Structure formats: C-alpha cells, structure tokens
Amino acid sequence: MFAYIVRRVLATIPVMAIVALFVFSLLYIAPGDPAAVIAGDQATPQDVERIRESLGLDRPFLVRFGEWLFRILQGDMGVSIFTNLPVTTMIQQRIEPTLSLMVLTLCLAVSIAVPMGVVAAWKQGTWIDRAVMGFAVLGFSVPVFVVGYVLAYVFALELDWLPVQGYTAFSNGFFPWLENLILPAIALGGVYIALIARITRATMLEVLQQDYIRTARAKGAGQRSILFLHALKNAAVPIVTVIGIGVALLIGGAVVTESVFAIPGLGRLTVDAILRRDYPVIQGVILLFSFVYVLVNLAIDLLYTLFDPRIRY
Amino acid sequence: MASATVVAPAALTSRDVAAAPPMPDVLPPVKPRRGFLGFLRRNPTIVAGAGLLLVMLAIAIFAPLLFTTDPTALAPARRTREPSAMYWFGTDMLGRDVYSRVLYGTRVSLLVGFSVALLSSVIGLTIGLISGFVRWADSIIMRIMDGMMSIPPILLAIALMALTRGSVQNVIIAITIAEIPRVSRLVRGVVLSLREQPYVDAAVAAGTRTPVIIWRHILPNTLAPITVQATYICASAMIVEAILSFIGAGTPPIIPSWGNIMAEGRALWQVKPYIVFFPAIFLSITVLAVNLLGDGLRDALDPRMAKRL
C-alpha cells in the first residue's frame, strides 16, 4: 500500500516534466514570430529584439529550457512583461477568488449531480429519468457564459436577489462571500453537473443489475439504503474518476465565468494578460492550473483504495 | 430501441416456453424498415440534430439572401437601437445590425467546428494508428499525449492564441492541437483491442502485410467511434471558439463571430442585454444540434459505448 502510494506519486514527476516541456515549447510551436506578436504592431525592431531576448528566443532551445525549469523548481516563474512584477506574486494576489469559486462549484455540483444520477437510474425510463438526461444534453450544449448571463440577468438584474458582479473575500464573512459566488458557481457547474449526472446514472444502472442488489432487496433493505449504501458505494470508482477528469472543465470555465461576473481571480488575470500580450503571466497560470489538475487526479487515484478495498496494488 | 418491439429470445427459459400458450399464427411478422428512411425512423435523435444543423448550415450559406445588410457597416447615428421591425435584433454600440452579424457569425462557428473535427480526427487517427502498431513509438507518443491532456484544453488554446495573430485559421489550429490527444487515445485503444481479434490473427497468419491489415481490418472498425467522437469535438470546438473570441483571444474583432458579438455587447449587457442574448441563443442551439447528432450516432453506430453512457 505504502509502496504503491510512493510509486504513484513518483509517477507524476515525468508527467509534470512533460507538461512543463510542452508549455515551454509552445513558444516554438506557435506559427509566426512570437516575439513580434507579443511586441505588438507599433513596436520598433529594438522592442522586438528586447522581447526576444527576455523570452530567451535568441538562445538554444535546450539550454533555455534547462535554465527555465531550474528557476520554476525554485518557485520563480519569471517577470511580467507589462507590470514587471514577479509572476508568482501576481498569481498569489489573485488565487483566492478562483480557488473559492472552484471549490464551491465542485461541492455544489457533486451534491446536485450525484443524487440526480442516482434518482434517474432508479426511475429509469420515467419522466424523471428523461428530465435528467435532457438536462444533461442541455448542460453540455449551453456554454458557461450564456448560463452566466442568463442567471445574472434573471436573479441579479430583474429579481434583484443577488449582487450582479464582483467578489467579497472570505475573510469578510461567509454569507457575503457566498452571495457573490453562488451565481458564478451555478453557471460554471452546468457542464460539470451534466457530466457527473450522466456517468452516475450509467454506472448505477449497471450496478443495480448485480446479484447483491437483489440479495439486499430480498433481505428487506429499504430503497434508500439500497440506492445510496449498496449501489452508490459500488458505483463510486467511475464517478470519482469523472469528477477528477471534469476538473479540467472547471479550470477552463473559470476563466470565462470570472470575465462574466467580474471576479478578480486567475481567469481575469489570464484575460488581462492576453489583451496585453503578457506571455510570462499566461505561461505561469497554465503551468499552475496543469499541475493542480495532475495533483487532483493523483489524489483521486489514491482515493480508489478507500472506495474499493478490492483494489490492491 | 428497435429491440423494444421484439421479444428477446434470451429472456425465455425452457419453463416459460412450456407454460406459454402457443403463438397465434395471425401475428404479423416484424419487418424492420430498411434503407436510409428506416434508419432515420429508428433514430429520431439523429433526425432532430441533423435537421437543426442543416437549418444552421442553410443560414450560413444563404446569409446574404436572408434580409441581412453588411454586417460590418458602421452607423454611429443608429447606435444601440432596441430590436424593431427595421433592426430585428437591434444594433450594437457602433450601430451595426446585430441580426446580420449573428447570421454571418454562423459561418465562422460552423467553419471552425467542422474544420477542427475533421483535422483532429485525421491527425488523431494517424497518431493513434502509429501508436497502436509501432511498439517503441507507443510509449513516447502516449507520454506526450498524457502531458498534453494534463493541460486543460481551453488554456492550451488560449496560450497558443496569445502567441499568434488572431485569425480564423490560427483559431482552428489552436483548438485542433488541444483536441488531438483525445482522438489519439481513442484510436489507440480501439486499435489495441482490434489487434487481439481472431480475424486479425488470421490475416497475420495468412501473411497479409501490415498496411493491408490496417486498411482492410483496422480502419473500417475505427470509423464508428471516430465519427461519434468527431461530432462531440465539433460541438466543443464551437464553444471554445466562442470563448476564445469572447475573452479577446480568438478571431479578430472585424470578423462577426458569435464570441466577438458577445464580447462587444459585454460592456452594455446590463442595459442592452439583447446584444449578448441573440448570439448566445444561436450558439446554444447549434451546439445542441451537434450534440444531439452525436448522441444519436453513438446510439446507432456504437451500441457498446451507448450502453456505458
């Protein structure tokens, strides 16, 4: 068991190295001359040359990658072209809203989607099932920002129940924090809920046909205990896997949601960086999000043993 | 769906047969409709999805004929007009006709969706085949794909777009690069399981050369899952394109794409919400159409996958 954990943790190192290599080589993969693009249309040749130097594009790829990786490992992600602040500082200033939004969305989505999927599987073929599946198709089809604008229009502008935009720090109290984040979290959660509900339903349908479910029924177990104790527990592994994979949707969606609701988080930082062509910042955010994503999926891999003691490594 | 009308023989045990009354001779034989129309009849989801998509395609092709004006024509005197008989969807903050812009935006969205679906399928198929057949390349390719898949696709596209000039072509390239790992993994999985099939063994034993095996036995079997995957990629590419344009990393602002229209309407959305909502509705309907088509194709072409989801 312990040996497995160590092996699994060590196995993420090459993946992270490849992520770093890939993110780094984007500068070289991108068509055209990135230095000229970043410098902008009004730049003088000297400006372009200066940016080429600061990105290290004038030196050999491997030398440059080695230096860059060495600095990343020391927690130095470079300096913003626009503000001249270290990228790590800029990220630290913006991380709380994004983290809040993603954690809230995750909790909200899981606590809505899993019961939805369970009930849909239980009532398979009825209007409840069809409603859940219909919702799932809609969730996949209506983009995050569309849901965001509709929610903000209805609940903030028309009904005036919640603030339209902005963010209140968690240190100012739970309810002001929640008030600002609840609409963004629902908007961001749409696709995620659809994904989890669908997988939950499909897995539950499979599990509900197993012999031990019939045994549970035969011994007189209640419907609720059969669904949530016997069946859901055995359906946990695929559901938890998809929760982990879906975090990529949350990360991508957060960038847009923060724009719609004017939340000053990492997504907003990214969007501002795009408009200013501030590549070191974009690179830093992507690297951070990718590492978070890898770590989340590592944690989920390790959780398997909790959900399914049959899994031995 | 088709099996619902027919009693599956597997459900009958010997005891049931003994107890069952003899079948009357007058039962009409079950005759499933054949041909293309029959296929459509059995798959209403495909009809709904494809129908909607064809409407959108018609809008894209015939946009100039559908009572539109020049979508880029500025008219500062007629800024932010509410929807009316003159301006069906109103005008934006530069006085451009939102109806015309939304209709022309269909072209960008469909072009990006279809191109990304096609390109990433072809490239992913090639990579997946190489990975499934060339042992030493497999581990290298799959490690690279693992790394690429660890970067959320939208962020990968954003990073690529930040390094290039905004153009429809670059948007297509950026989204394609972000989608390739998923197709490659899918194809590789299919290839690996097909290689274990007896008929492939038989072909190998008969001395068939590898290219012929790939062409005759492997490729036809990858088509169904790839087609299904391609429709989903098309849907996701249209959303990503809109997101990229919305946050200013997509098509250049002069091109009327749905994401651009929404980005321009963003500043005014609290007072003039229609500028954002009309392109949003079109985008949602188009993506819904493609997703319905994908679900229908999945149920029809790939029953194994359909059962799992």
Automatic annotation (TrEMBL), chain A:
Spans traversing the lipid bilayer:
9-30, 99-122, 134-157, 177-197, 235-261, 281-307
Q: Which residues form the ABC transmembrane type-1 domain?
A: 95-304
Q: State its location(s).
A: Cell membrane
Cite the Pfam families for this sequence. BPD_transp_1, BPD_transp_1_N
SUPFAM superfamilies the UniProt entry points to: MetI-like
GO terms (molecular function) for this protein are: dipeptide transmembrane transporter activity
What's the protein called, per UniProt? ABC transporter permease
Q: Which organism is it from?
A: Siccirubricoccus deserti
UniProtKB/TrEMBL annotation, chain B:
Q: Where do transmembrane segments lie in this chain?
A: 46-69, 110-134, 232-255, 275-294
Q: Which GO terms describe its cellular component?
A: plasma membrane
UniProt cross-references to InterPro entries, sorted A to Z: BP-dependent_transpt_permease, MetI-like, MetI-like_sf, OppC_N
Q: What is the top-level taxon of the source organism?
A: Bacteria
Q: Which residues form the ABC transmembrane type-1 domain?
A: 110-294
Where primarily located? membrane
User: What membrane topology does the UniProt entry give?
Assistant: Multi-pass membrane protein
This protein's UniProt keywords: Cell membrane, Membrane, Transmembrane, Transmembrane helix, Transport
Pfam families in alphabetical order: BPD_transp_1, OppC_N
Q: Which GO terms describe its biological process?
A: transmembrane transport
Cell location: Cell membrane
Q: Which PANTHER family match?
A: ABC TRANSPORTER PERMEASE PROTEIN (PTHR43386:SF6), OLIGOPEPTIDE TRANSPORT SYSTEM PERMEASE PROTEIN APPC (PTHR43386)
Q: Would you identify the family this protein belongs to, as annotated? A: Belongs to the binding-protein-dependent transport system permease family.
Report what the protein is called: ABC transporter permease
Q: What is the lineage of its organism?
A: Bacteria, Pseudomonadati, Pseudomonadota, Alphaproteobacteria, Acetobacterales
